[in-house]
Amino acid sequence: MRRLQAMELFVAAVREGSFSAAGRRAGLSPASVSRQVAALEAALGTQLLNRSSRSLVLTDAGREYLARLEPILQDIAAAEAAAAALQATPVGTVRLHSRTMFGLRVVTPLLPAFQARYPELRVELRLAERPASFAEDEIDIELRIGAPPAGPLMQRLLLRSERILVASPGYLAAHPPVRRPDDLLAQHCLAYWLGPDEVSWRFLAAGALQELRIAARLTANNGEVLRELALAGHGIALLDDYTVRDALAAGRLVRLLPGWQVTNSEFDQGIYAVFRQASLLPAKTRAFLDFLVKALPGVLSD
User: Start and end of every HTH lysR-type domain (predicted)?
Assistant: First the structure.
């Protein structure tokens, strides 16, 4: 930065005609300007200015240096202005990564309102059943279900959610009632596929933890599949509450064991936004995060 300042002072001294005028423009003393220009000359190994008590005159080297330097300084100023504009105004492309079901059922309906508010912003939404790699995928925000592991990335809790057991009224009418977790062992269960290990569902009530190994009738690595099968009366599914809220309200699904917390992983099932750590968050990232914080409670309570 000192070399850059010396370059700027050199140009200012030439254009203003003196070290005093250049110093007033930069808020420095004439002696400080003179020292920095002299240091620049020493670093270059050539004299740029012939000095007298009344004027500054460019040498041949100084004239050549000025001609090449001024466009560079103008480009630097333009680059700084462009970067500042990106920081202050949401423009460009905001790249999002989300689990498939959350992206389909929650994020997608919000995008028209977001882009109506920020018409200059483009949105790139990627859906997958795996966590994103910020380095490889070049994303700005990942939307995760459950607390992310500790690491160099920043995280923001957007909303609390929970997993619940649901089944269709038709399925429940044709099968024995489910009054406690053990009753699930005699039911047709629909489970999310987490790998080759046996399916385990964990139950928590009144401080008591119970874990059941479920002989799932069907497993799938997509929650939308499980939701559709539950609606079709094919069995009991463990799903995030926001994915079945509409079906519960319409009576197409019924919640089971409401007195128990249920999960196939951890009980903390908040919805988190994960993004790169930065002292100054890009305006596009900040805009989408703030929008989600305000919009999610409304869309999930409808």
Answer: 1-59
